[in-house]
Amino acid sequence: MTKDGLEKSKAAFERAKKSIPGGVNSPVRAFGAVGGTPPFIAKGKGARITDVDGNEYIDYVGSWGPLILGHAHPQVVEAIREAAEDGSSFGAPTERETLLAEEVKDAFPSMALVRMVSSGTEAVMSAVRLARAYTGRDKIVKFDGCYHGHGDYLLVQAGSGLATAGVASSPGVPERTARDTISLPFNDADAAADCLKAQGDRVAAVIVEPVAGNMGVVPPEPGFLEALRDLTTTHGAVLIFDEVITGFRIARGGAQERYGVTPDLTTLGKIIGGGLPVGCYGGRGDIMKGIAPVGSVYQAGTLSGNPVTMAAGLATLTELKRDGFYDALETTAASLEAGIVAAAKDADAEITTNRVGSMMTFFARGGTVRNYVDAKASDAERFAKFHAGMLTRGVYLAPSQFEATFVSAAHTEADVAATVAAAAAVFKEIAAAG
Q1: Catalytic residue at 242?
Q2: pTM of the model
Q3: Looking at 8, 10, 139, 270, which residue is catalytic?
């Protein structure tokens, strides 16, 4: 860090608190789980970001996943510039919407029809409403620690920021709304089977992060996703994969490509807009034709299919089709994982690493992490010390034990080496402090 540390960020944070609740527009950004002052970011380029004090960091947040190409990628910036010069918003159809929908369909064959929206939360809310209308049922099954946005009926055992705050569900959610949501242990196919056997005729949809990313990264155990597919088919419920994080991230076709399991509906976000606000949902044609104006299920949005966002998304998805893109990303992520694990072992620091593709979490605990209960057993205080030590050494990690570390195509071997060296120093520092 600079000799002044985070003085300008501290001043910016105090000023923000006077106009914005908690000084931030999304709770985890406040650093409540790790302590200290959140750096206020001034700019980013490639794999690095710079704060208002001039401190530079190797960034593993990447705007919480969408910046798979890194910050300010030249092709994405140029696409945004060209689109903005043509007009930022029309509230009318544009060809770019169709082009991006075609790219999504090409990568996700399960998505016969696609509807663009402006956020992952909006995509999930719309998909669930559609599933309820399609089945004529009300109940939703989700899994502990999986976060599907801040819609009322899904803020139950929702992980991520709620886990950080120690809140199982949010005040303001009516009890009658939460009553229609059933939350089960992640990776427990037997619990899902028992639930659907007992209440299957009332369940509209089973929604899951096929790779959990909001209790930290937790992969599905062999057979878990397959069991959900079989159970929903048997009981006439809609299977929804929330791939807002995993879509285009762990494979071009997301988790459904990586694991070979096909859902009825899919929600996407983040990457398909190249870092701009976006989401989409899509799936089987017979279900999607229930959406207005073809069907009677209402959903609308003035900025849905925003031309600037569509342009950024097209530029991003074009880059992801380059030969060897995901192989190179996998190599970089595996190198980072191996380096951190070795550094921890050398310092006799107890950690558990879960990684799927270019997203991973270093849990401050030993043993296996296969569900929300396991994740919550992590040592939050030790993680906070690790986070602070890494930040001081110029490595920007998500300020929560319950989030993912994201590797981008912009991260180099030198970035990985510097990160591992920083981690080695931090592990030893924590050990020395007792």
Answers
A1: yes
A2: 0.94
A3: 270
